[in-house]
């Protein structure tokens, strides 16, 4: 089977069936070719509703989870968004169609290089890519209107919460084990953070520091 050249209608139907009903989010997903963010023979499987392997032992998230997280984040056209864990860049590209600007951080330089090539090919010009430890956020660009973490933290990261504007939203998978985590939506109210529990999910762990490994 060869790679599809555009996003198939069945893929969009699956997302709707799984509860993604925000038309802006659906439109951002429809205009983002997932097959461009995976390599080799995985391209032909890009429109299956599954996570897939990418370089450096990481994964591109399951499409339904990308949709649920993006919808929960309630991104608007004036928002400055921080994304921790660029990975393939697929989620970043979707956010870039909804937000004013997306700052995205990845600890693997090789993954960031590949993601930036695709951003250029798709002419996404409102993404600022940073190689570094995303658990520290980007203090000099704070506060952010929205923060999304696409790797699992043991607890809601306090450093990132401190970079969220009052009225802002953060979505983060939280769990003490690698097996099971809960997606948490945090709304920063005047009185402090308000936590809501969403789906059970499974993400790669949020690690500290920048990867030193070659090809790793
Ligand atoms: N949304 C991405 C998910 C990639 S997996 C996609 O769909 O492609 C999560 C990514 O988080 C991995 O690439 C991993 O290297 C990265 N990551 C883990 N801990 C990190 C940290 N502290 N700072 C930045 N990136 C981190």
Task: Describe the protein.
- The protein is an alpha/beta fold.
- Helix content is 24%, strand content 26%.
- The protein has six helices and nine strands.
- It has helices at residues 9-17, 23-30, 63-73, 90-96, 109-121, 158-161, and strands spanning 52-53, 59-60, 80-84, 101-106, 127-131, 144-149, 164-174, 181-189, 192-201.
- The protein has a seven-stranded mixed β-sheet with strand order 5-4-3-6-7-8-9, with helices on one face. Strands 1-2 form a two-stranded antiparallel ribbon.
- The longest helix is centred in the middle third of the chain and has 13 residues, at 109-121.
- The protein is globular and about 50 Å long.
- The model has no long low-confidence stretch (mean pLDDT 95).
- S-adenosyl-L-homocysteine (SAH) binds at residues 58-61, 84-85, 87-88, 90-91, 105-108, 111, 133-135, 150-151, 204, 206-208.
- The site of S-adenosyl-L-homocysteine has 24 residues, from β2, α4 and β4.
């Amino acid at each position: 089977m060869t790679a599809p050249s555009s996003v198939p209608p069945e893929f969009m139907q699956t997302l709707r069936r799984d509860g993604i009903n925000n038309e802006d989010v659906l439109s951002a997903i429809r205009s983002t070719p997932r097959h461009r963010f995976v390599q080799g023979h995985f391209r032909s499987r890009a429109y299956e509703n599954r996570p897939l392997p990418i370089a450096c032992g990481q994964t591109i998230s399951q499409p339904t989870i990308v949709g649920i997280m993006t919808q929960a984040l309630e991104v608007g056209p004036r928002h400055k968004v921080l994304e921790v864990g660029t990975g393939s860049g697929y989620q970043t590209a979707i956010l870039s169609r909804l937000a004013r600007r997306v700052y995205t951080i990845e600890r693997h330089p090789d993954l960031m290089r590949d993601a930036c090539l695709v951003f250029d090919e798709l002419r996404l010009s409102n993404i600022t890519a940073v190689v570094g430890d995303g658990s520290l956020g980007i203090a000099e660009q704070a506060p952010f209107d929205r923060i999304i973490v696409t790797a699992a933290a043991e607890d809601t990261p306090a450093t990132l919460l401190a970079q969220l504007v009052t009225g802002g939203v953060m979505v983060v998978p939280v769990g003490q084990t690698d097996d099971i985590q809960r997606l948490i939506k945090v709304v920063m109210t005047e009185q402090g953070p308000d936590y809501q529990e969403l789906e059970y999910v499974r993400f790669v762990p949020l690690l500290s520091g920048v990867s030193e490994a070659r090809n790793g």
